[in-house]
């Protein structure tokens, strides 16, 4: 049966990224997000004790020179990028 639809077919090669793991366990690697879950961060920031702990962690150590502003974390990409080391 003919539908009358026009179909364009394109051939090519796609090179997909792959894990560096080799052998039989390559497909057992869990997917890990580069960015912590925004839902988890929002829930943690709602608890005053957790918020104080996070603020302390995000303003010392590797963040000492450029602390993460948790008040802007949900909306500011610049603050979000600090969490992934950008």
From TrEMBL:
What is this protein's name? Lipase
């Amino acid at each position: 049966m003919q539908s009358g639809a026009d179909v364009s077919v394109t051939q090519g090669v796609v090179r997909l990224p792959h894990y560096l793991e080799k052998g039989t366990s390559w497909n057992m690697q869990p997917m890990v997000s580069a960015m912590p879950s925004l839902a988890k961060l929002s829930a943690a920031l709602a608890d005053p004790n957790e918020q104080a702990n996070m603020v302390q962690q995000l303003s010392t150590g590797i963040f000492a020179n450029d602390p993460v502003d948790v008040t802007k974390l949900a909306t500011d990409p610049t603050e979000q990028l600090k969490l992934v080391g950008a």
